[in-house]
Amino acid sequence: MSALAEPPLSPPSASPSQPAPAPSLADQRKVVVRLSDGETILVGMAPSRERATALARAWIDRLSLPEGEWPQIGERFVRPEAIVSVDVLRWS
Q: Could you tell me which residues come within 8 angstroms of residue 34 by beta carbon, excluding any fewer than 6 positions away?
């Protein structure tokens, strides 16, 4: 009978890779479009401020339409003059 050979072990790596820390709840952000009447429309969420800022900039570009056109936000068309800001807020 022959002995079963075990597969060779991989050599230990010089520096064990640490998994990236999960974003904390305090880092999570939401991006909203704020209207002149105070209403906010949620347009996205992100796990960090940096990613939320990138999302907000994308929405700013998306909302920059030729004069006379109304941007679509979700299922709504919004009068351009009603848009006050695009905000990055802590998720609370």
A: 40, 83, 84, 85, 86, 87
